[in-house]
Amino acid sequence: MISFRSKNVPPSPIRRLIPYAEEAKRRGIKVYHLNIGQPDIPTPEAFWEGIRKYKEKVLSYGPSDGLRECKKAVREYYNKIGIEIMEEEIFITTGGSEGILFIFFILGEVGDEFLIPEPCYANYISLGRMAQINLVPIETKVEEGFHLPEKKEIEKLITKKTKAIIICSPNNPTGTVYSREEINRIVELGIKYNLFLILDEVYREFLFDGREWVNIFTTSFPMDRIIIIDSLSKRFSACGARIGFIVTKNKQILSQLMVLGMARLCPPTIGQMGAIESFKKMDEFMGEMIEEYERRRNIVYEELKKIKKITTYLPEGAFYTIAKLPVEDAEEFIKWLLTSFHLNGRTVMVAPLDGFYLSQNKGKNEIRIAYVLEEERLKEAMLILRKGLEEYGRITQ
Amino acid sequence: MISFRSKNVPPSPIRRLIPYAEEAKRRGIKVYHLNIGQPDIPTPEAFWEGIRKYKEKVLSYGPSDGLRECKKAVREYYNKIGIEIMEEEIFITTGGSEGILFIFFILGEVGDEFLIPEPCYANYISLGRMAQINLVPIETKVEEGFHLPEKKEIEKLITKKTKAIIICSPNNPTGTVYSREEINRIVELGIKYNLFLILDEVYREFLFDGREWVNIFTTSFPMDRIIIIDSLSKRFSACGARIGFIVTKNKQILSQLMVLGMARLCPPTIGQMGAIESFKKMDEFMGEMIEEYERRRNIVYEELKKIKKITTYLPEGAFYTIAKLPVEDAEEFIKWLLTSFHLNGRTVMVAPLDGFYLSQNKGKNEIRIAYVLEEERLKEAMLILRKGLEEYGRITQ
After folding, report:
1. Which chain B residues are within 8 Å of A241, Cβ to Cβ?
2. Topology of domain B45-283, per CATH?
3. Pick from B95, B107, B169: nearest CA to B138
4. Of the residues A228, A291, B77, B392, which has the fewest C-beta atoms closer than 10 A?
5. Global confidence as pTM
């Protein structure tokens, strides 16, 4: 009854264990959620101001490519960071996820190949299955901080069906920021094989230790083969607004985006109103927010180092890190944390990493930690994780 | 470069002529928009109240199937109209259009067939192409007020690949309301051939001349093969909120909706807040709104009757009607209205109907009129249409 292609879409590894967390809460246990990239940072006041500014009597359909004022705000932000684009080169989407789905569909026939470093953001896998394209993993490893392999290793993966390389930097789920030299490997391969580059930069500003953002338009990659997936969910701590955008100079893609966009009418109007004001005032709140995340990153790293037999690394951006645990099956451990463990009535939820891998049987003993809680809570959550691992080690030996 | 399947998606007939309207506006011409189902009725105060009630500090991701409170509001509304459903039988979507796409994808393998009366809502065609399912037209005619053909005519269209019949009543784009007897034809065929029934009832309350709504759950159609597509866009005049919902008792479909829903994270949070309050207070504003649309329906019908050599009918619901015009190519006529005609500096935009047909070369001389303007403006718009047709008739003879 259910189509095979639909059954082929995997449930989110970030969300599928939520019923266990809900059950724990019903038993009166407090659950620290480090499983989902839902920041606790307040949505900036500018966002709410923007919403309040909407004084129309009718909450009407907007243009399929987004409100003109919203596109203007995106353009000004992009110009400020050194990317010269025009408003017609911006397409507002219903969250970054819609942007990914549209681009897969526009560029890929059924079965076409898109390279992506794995582990990768799990929704690439589910949206890729929906679009029936083939994601081909570029192997990266926890021991190397998930940095890219040598160019020749990536080159081996390119076939006649390869359409694009997807690069998410700063990376979800790894927190890795690719260096200019790494980006150049991709640029050279993209040019050599005439590929598209899909650049997911929703964490663009989330850079630690003074790292620099690599503006892809300062490389030699052909401008009309660059597609940027962006979103204000993380930047403005406004995940529930469902506003993202695609930036590209490719006119054919833009015109096709408009056709697909018409079929779903328009992105949400009110969220765009919030975006307009937030972009204008982002300098006022972004710096402080990134500093906060860097402090949290330090806490998570320090706390993880205290755990025996764990493999981890210093994440360079975004607000995620990955740890390889001394357990056989991380998912079983996470379930156990939620069903059979607590520390003073509290426990912690993280995401099992296997759902972020395209390859079978990878990441079975790895977890993603999203450090989206303020420092004191984060410390406690990490303590719970450590104590939980010790206890789990004792009972499973 | 662009995939064939993407190129196969047609641009919206409702939106694709907008550049001509914008050009007219730049020349100082006022354009009455009867092309798009964007009501001028104010969004109810309850909707804005709901938004103002959102006091969270963080605009966070909601559940993939919608906020619990929003599902509760939908359940209470459905219970009130006599459909017994539970909250877990409701899935909140990002507009009705997302619901259509998800259901096509969940039920249909590539190439599977879905029957639908034509002309049909144009976005079914584009979303069907995106999902790569095959929409098979059930022929209906302006001369018959677009009512359904005999059962045996529909039965001829059913093959081994037929998965479902799609019924939109009150209908967009025709304004036709199918009688209980017509619905029974579909019910009997659905049972005989074990099909799903996809019921699009976003205009459920928009019934004129005291017509009754047929509750599908009072027929003998198997409950677990009914899928209702619904939306608050028209009911609450809140098209820009992008909130729709699917109602079904089929557990497999519900669980699959959750998987696809996770891949796009969640529907917009703020729109759901507006929905919650609006559902609670809908009795306060719905009656008046429907009366307003019925008055407008009467105006459009009376005005159309004044036009020579036109074929039309009395629409029974929604806020659309169709007219067959004494022109060869309605699209050329619409462009002409926007580029070369005005009455005291004003002109009118309607939608060419060919884009609402699946069959080639149908509807070439038909238009859809959305009566979404208040009475005086509507009268003027209809006068412009009449004068335009007279003038166009003279110059094209």
Report:
1. 59, 268-270
2. Aspartate Aminotransferase; domain 2 (3.40.640)
3. B169
4. A291
5. 0.96
